Amino acid sequence: MDTTNTTIVETHSLTKRYGSGVLAVDSVDMSVRRGEVYGFLGPNGAGKTTTLRMLVGLIRPTSGTATVAGHAPGDPAGLAKIGSLIESPGFYPYLSGRENLRVVANLAGVNHKRVEEILDMVELGSRAGRKFSTYSTGMKQRLGVAAAVLKDPELLILDEPTNGLDPQGMAEMRKLIKDIGQGDRTVMLSSHLLGEVEQICDRVGVISNGHLVKQATVQELLGEKGVTVRAEPSDKASEVLTKMFGPASVVREDGYFHLKTDPSRSMEINRQLTTAGIGVSELRPFERSLEEVFFQLTGEKQGS
Amino acid sequence: MIATIKAEWRKNRLRPAFLVSSGLLAALTALAYGAQWYQATHPGTGRGNAVVSILTLYPDQFVNNVIGVGFPIGAAFAIVLGALFAGSEYQWGTLKTLLTQHHGRLTTWIGRVVVFEFWMAILTAVLFAAAAVASVIVAGFQGHAISWPAPVDIAKAVGTIWLIFSVNGALGMALGTLFKTSAAALGVGLVYVLALQIIAVRFIDSFNNGAYKWIGDLFDGQNAQALIQSFTSPAFGPSAAPSIGPERAVLVLAAYLAVFLVAAATLIRQRDVT
């Protein structure tokens, strides 16, 4: 299969070792498909930003290869198709938000009319005349996203875009990213916030200590959804549930039955059990949280 | 290339550092003229009771008068601006914004250099304009006829100052790129121009009755001073002939300019932007 049509980012054994000997990224094989919102998940210092910097050509890999938007990282032809916000928004403090975007527009070969459209999109239109140095953290982040989408890129790379934002700002930024990710555009989003990735992303790559430890859809990572039941008498309940779902879909553990079925069937399960004269003391959907999966994959301890 | 120049100009046309420097250079020139005018009209108040000739303050001598500002004062201004121009891009994180747009690193760098050189030309023009205006004011008050130096002499002087500003600005840019910060770059640059190379040249010249003077003559400051000293006039009294010819000084300074710009370009091109 020709992967160049379906993948927009592909890396093979991508490695970065700094002069100090620190191995920041170690043999990362990653693929991001066109049109998806890809979450790049990992704890602080895992190698997310270093990987993203390599993808946009800001730093050179020690070994390995990468293809981004059909080109080598840093190739001007590829950069024309990529919008990025790496780490923190970099703008000139003495210029207004609007003037900063016009500078980027000049560099990107974009008409200045587009600047006004984008300012409205990120809801900075009324405050675009103020100097960048007077902006709040949220406004700076919004301007950073605005600069990244200015050239209507095929691939948008956002590195921890909700960093430093208050809860409301984070919610607004997530909505903005979701809106931007509509249609054919690919969004690659790095974050250490599990909820953020779970809410926004289609697929996730989990990086830990420079290694890409897992790459899958959010659903694949979370595993199958199901229903947990506690009922008495348990032998009779087992009989009824096995009859309903088959033996392979009923797991009995510590007095509970874990059923591999859609939680929407909860009402039907309750009716069948009570009709059979079985007392149901507990019935709830179960799903592993991304947090559990993340800690399992990265080997980190919860709450540490 | 045009796009990078446009973008650089857009962000630097109102940059406070350039605007303030232009204003300061103009103010210093006016102040110098004012002080010299007072000294010329009040004999014995000059430095070391020296007499300042009023003839040096008239428009026909303004080129010879203002050329002295080029080194080391003008050079110091240029170093500070070069260091700020290059170093602040790292401090503000704007270099990554520039380098992740549509152009290669070298193209982006060339665009930046073009705009910086344009600002050095503006500073040169401001310097000469301020001196010309000040000389006209002095001539007007003294009732002296206004006549100007030959256009070719003005052009040579403008070229000299622009070259000196460019060389020192490029040194500032190279240091700003090397240190990835403005403060260290302008500190090291100023120490080099105002102290280190002067001490080094004196030290080298003192060996073996000046046997190694040719090494001292390779320093950019020596060549800048020699070029400035090549502008002489009887109005300023007798002056010692510079040990370096103006043609050679121009070549040496041009070589310094090229080395500083290429060194900075190499750093920009090769180094990771972290």
Structural features:
heterodimer; A: 304 residues; alpha/beta; Rossmann fold; Alpha-Beta Plaits; 6-stranded mixed sheet; 4-stranded antiparallel sheet; 34% helix; B: 274 residues; mainly alpha; 11 helices
For this structure, what is the CATH class of the largest domain in chain A? Answer: Alpha Beta
Major beta-sheet overview of chain A? 6 strands, mixed
CATH architecture assignment of the largest domain in chain A: 3-Layer(aba) Sandwich
Beta strand % of chain B: under 5%
Give the proportion of residues in helices of chain A: 25-40%
At the third CATH level, what is the topology name of the largest domain in chain A?
A: Rossmann fold
Q: What is the arithmetic mean of pLDDT of chain B?
A: 90
* Gyration radius from CA atoms of chain A, angstroms: 24 Å
- pLDDT < 50 runs, ≥5 residues of chain B: none
Order of helices and strands of chain A: EEEHEHEHHHEHEHEEHEHEEHEH
Count of individual beta strands of chain B? 0
Mean pLDDT of chain A: 88
The main pleated sheet of chain B reads as: none
> Using DSSP, what is the number of strands of chain A?
13
- Counting copies of identical and different chains, the oligomeric state is heterodimer
In words, what does this structure look like?
The complex is a heterodimer of chains A (304) and B (274). By secondary structure, chain A is an alpha/beta fold. Chain A has helices at residues 48-55, 76-79, 97-108, 112-121, 137-149, 167-180, 194-200, 218-222, 234-245, 266-275, 290-298; strands at residues 7-17, 23-33, 37-41, 63-68, 82-85, 155-159, 186-191, 203-208, 211-217, 226-232, 250-253, 256-259, 279-286. In chain A, strand 11 (250-253) and strand 12 form a beta hairpin. Chain A is elongated. By secondary structure, chain B is mostly helical. Classes of the chains: A alpha/beta (304), B mainly alpha (274). Chain A binds chain B through residues 53, 56-60, 74, 76, 79-80, 82, 84, 86-95, 99-100, 102-104, 106-109, 147, 151, and chain B through 3-4, 6-7, 10-11, 14-16, 92-105, 107-108, 272-274.
